[in-house]
Amino acid sequence: MRNLVRFFAISRILMRYRLDSLVLSTPLLKSFKPLLYLIPWHYFPVKQYTRGERIRLALEELGPIFIKFGQTLSTRRDLLPNDIGDELAKLQDSCPAFDPAKAKRMIEQSLGDSTEHLFKQFDLTPLASASIAQVHTAITHDGDAVVVKVVRPNIDQTIKRDIALMYALAKLISKHPISEKVRPLEIVAEFEAIILNELNMLNEANNASQL
Known about the structure:
By secondary structure, the chain is α+β, with helices and mostly antiparallel strands. It has helices spanning 2-16, 19-23, 51-62, 64-74, 82-89, 100-111, 115-118, 155-173, 179-182, 184-209; strands at residues 121-122, 128-129, 133-139, 145-151. Strands 1, 2, 3 and 4 form a four-stranded antiparallel β-sheet that branches.
């Protein structure tokens, strides 16, 4: 059920940036393109973006896992047109932060005390935000400057859900001859290995901090 809800959410975002028409322009799905004219919001005006901008903006709105996917894909210039590759490269420094108050509560729950007791100073404003975690700066009572990395809430479930949807899409694309060059299943598998490895390293570091 959750995957179905997420699927419709993704579809809505793709339509918002007119990526539905971009997808349906591919040889694999071209025969379905007339269906676009049956969708009411197809006739609503949309701000003019290049196709690369539309893809980047959609990935940003789809959330951290898709942003990470775009970041990973941006390094594969052998698979991407230059205009799309250039836009995806902008994702390297782009990942919305989650609620800093929630991050503070997670730190306190993990370390078993309030940030006021744990640190002389703790900055609620994130120093950086990535697909899996965000970083806050702090100063210990000894005067040392430190950074505190907080794993995004419910990120494990989010990764599993979005990876499953990516595999479903990759399987669809793999039925088309273009997959011989793009190899969508391999790309998703490579991305899955990267993001799970990153998550495992963060979880191990988090567990070590509690010992």
